[in-house]
Design goal:
About 70% of the residues lie in helices and about 5% in strands. It contains 6 helices and 2 strands, in the order αβαααβαα. Strands 1-2 form a two-stranded antiparallel ribbon. The longest helix has about 35 residues. The N terminus is likely disordered. This is Endosomal/lysosomal proton channel TMEM175. It is a multi-pass membrane protein.
Amino acid sequence: MSGPQTPEPALGIQGDAPTGARDEDAADGIQHSHRMLSFSDALLSIIATVMILPVTHTEISPEQFDKSIQKLLATRIAVYLMTFLIVTVAWAAHTRLFQVVGKIDDTLALLNLACMMTITFLPFTFSLMVTFPEVPLGIFLFCMCVITIGAVQALIVVY
């Protein structure tokens, strides 16, 4: 077992700040990160759910099911799995990061929102890669999203 643990401060009615700390933190524009983490978790779970739609909405008649359709489905599933993996890795890194960050200010909130916005762009790049696998634009945008997500998370750590 781990060593002695200190009790966490009592949370206020809304559960986002210890009782008594709400007034002094509000004046500084600082708030606890619980709400930001909850918002980000919800957003990422929606993204992970929406990403499967291009795969599930592939219309195939039994007469068309040949090698080219099989290849198209295999490509869509492979790109989905890769994108899902990246979103879940970003979610895990985000969760670990906000376990360390106890309070956030406006700058940190904006950095987090930039990260979330970039992650929400991933399904679009996924759709481009699936629809036009021979066109490099989707792959380029996808790679730029992944680089941006890493850079913003690094900025949050440094901040």
